Amino acid sequence: MIDPTTTPRLVDSLASVSRRHRLDRKLIVAPTHAAGRELLRRLAILREGWVGFEVLTPKKLAQKLAQRSLDQENLDIVDKFEQLALLDRALDSALTAEEGVFGELSEGVGFRERVHGAILALRLAEVCPRKLDDARFVQWEKKLFLVRVLQRYERLLTERCQADTATVLRLAMEELETEGGRMPAALEADQLLLLPGLSMRGLYGDLISALSARGGRVLETDPVIGLDVPRSLLWGRSGEASSGSHLYEPGEAVGGGEFVFFSAASVDIELREVLRRVVERGLSWDQVEIIAVDGTTYGSALHAIASQLGIPVTYAGGLPISRTRTGRVVKAYLDWIEEGFHASLIRRLLEAGDLRPPKGRGNHAPVALARRFRSLRVGWGRKRYRTQIKEALEGVDRMERGQTEPVDSFERRRNRAREEIEALRAILFSPLKETPTIPDRMGGDADRVSPAEIARGLRSFLRRVPRGRGADRRAREDVSRVLERIEATLNRRTDFRSAVSILRRHLDLRVRPEVFGDDPDGAGAPWTSTGGALHLSDLEHGGYSGREAVFVVGLDAERIPGGVRQDAVLLDSDRRVLGTGLLTSTEVFRERLFSFAAMFARLRGVVTMSFRAWDVSGAQTIAPSSILLHALRLGRADPSLTFDDLQEVISPVISAIPGAGRPALDGDDVWMRALGTDSSIKSGVESVRGSFPGLDRGLAAAEERMFGEPGQVHGIIQPRPEELDPRVKDGVVLSASRLEALASCPLRYLHSVVLGIRSPDDPELDPDRWLDPRQRGSLLHSVFEASLRTSRVDGIKPDEADFEGRALDILEERVGVFRSQVPAPGEGALNREVAGLREDVRSFVRMIRSDS
Questions:
Q1: DSSP β-ladder status, 510-511 and 319-320
Q2: What are the pLDDT digits (tens) for 735-753?
Q3: What is the CA angle 557-562-566, rounded to 5?
Q4: Interval 743-772 mean pLDDT
């Protein structure tokens, strides 16, 4: 017998079905595949039978039902990329003669996404163009625009013999009608089980209702007391109330659950405190589930902490791809082309080993390639990569051997330089060729570009990224599949920024990291929980694992319950006119509250609830969610408690310093505990210096340079006239500038001349300037010198008209040379500066003529 105090009612209901129908084929219809799989895993842990179960989402079930009709009508189901392409074509067609605000917004990615969402919502709500045209909208122009888009989209589907989700759902309903009142044979199921919480909106609701009428059974679950069931969610009979069922009616609770509360200064600190409490309670990792309100933010933070501490973690919603090498490279490439091909991004990828030359180009150290690349002084601009690399290869043949350098050492140095430059060429030239023409950094004019063209360049760039293992390999495979579909479908040209935004959104993927002990090249960590690993879930999947220790994190007022926001295209007033298949913003808000309460009712054991109380970026405090107050009232069986009482419970805010008696997770906790107490923080400088001798010597040198007597750190060292004094040793040459440096700052002379230290000479971007004062002066000096010299040789006098023409011609020649050496921030800045240089040359000519 299953203990209801430790097992959710939903699992108990599923177990009773399993016991009664051991060998039957049982089909579970779940909101997500992961939720259904988690329930079956819990069933197996309880030693109940799980044979014969299959999990399907409503969308997959509809496809199964509609397959015969799809085959008969020769219809192909569109994927999300094909659907996006069709919606874009329909929208463009509707905007052909459009004037006003819709035409102005037509290239905005946000505008298009909201129009796409509105059209798909209308389709799923069974709103046809005629019904939409008959509706009374406040904004008449918007209604006509949506009617045109919807008509064109449906016409494109028909012309191409394609079916979207709404079409599949309608065909599935027709298939059910042909089967009469019995369970459809296409499902090949003896028992059809419907999970509470399934969407009942529009066509989805029609399908679920039809299945329920044909024998589909809604599983019992823990009830939600105090909130009405939203009409948009499936809900059936409920069992006895659990301790969490009374979250919104704490006064009716028979026995309050055990709830613990705390607040933390940041997301990282909040998660580290969770892990400390797990260790303190002596729990194993697979006894713990963390439910995050914001799965992306908390998933990334937990992965960083768990990787450092060696804690195995499974992720119900997957791991953000940004945590993988492939994700980092994808972001870097899109940033690279958006920021005008700035060399610093490539240098960082080379240093990290994220870009490698193809086989046969040598096994070069990442740092060596990055150093060689930096010496090219690319700066920014796609043309600079080709010119600088080609000039560097030509310069290798002009390299000279040092006076005392052995011949074999010189040959090795020259060969190494050539091989490293050729490796850089092999890494960069192909992606540069495949990347389409885009605006310069200052937003200059360029041809419109499609996401498919940018995807082609990104695929070429990814070929130079090591495949890696585990999550990196899976991320690479997932990204490659998405890019292939984008190349095949998203060929509509738009402005460059919009195309990049579309690509970013399609590549915001989730991957499965490996769990310790798994084959890194195998299937990877499951989306469901597994033995030996801590489990991170979100609000959609939380509470299904049935683990005895649950931590709900991220419960601040900004994240949950959040605000009430209307759709930007289909306003609440429009939705009320169109019918029940479209939810208003208030109904969506109520659905979100109820879904959280349903998840909370499933929880068992000790539930710890927390939030981050400080926003670092905004430098402001964050209020706790009202849900925390409801939970406090429930835990203490006192509905009269206020936010002041909650504030007392969650104070003080936990900081990076572990609380008294808390176990230390790693060396960071040990250090912070040694430095901090409840009331003050020690300096700790001497302890750190004693533990890190190298750091101690560096700090001592800095202090001596700032406050000590003149000595070595100021450049006063033992004289070596036999090596450095030109009066003693032949061959030592001192220019006027070096003598000036020796007199003005001996330390700078020591660094630059004696030690040969050079500061990085990377080109720096100034949006309004091409040349810095030194470069500008050098260019003008060369123009003035060449003008006087060549004019004297050719017999051209300063007062002749040809003298000014000669000077301006030489200026144009020198500008061309400098353009290959110094990247321009944009054509506008370049043209302004060249015009100023021409005026300087004309002033020089006037001065020479007046002196003559």
A1: antiparallel
A2: 777 778 778 887 777 777 7
A3: 155
A4: 74
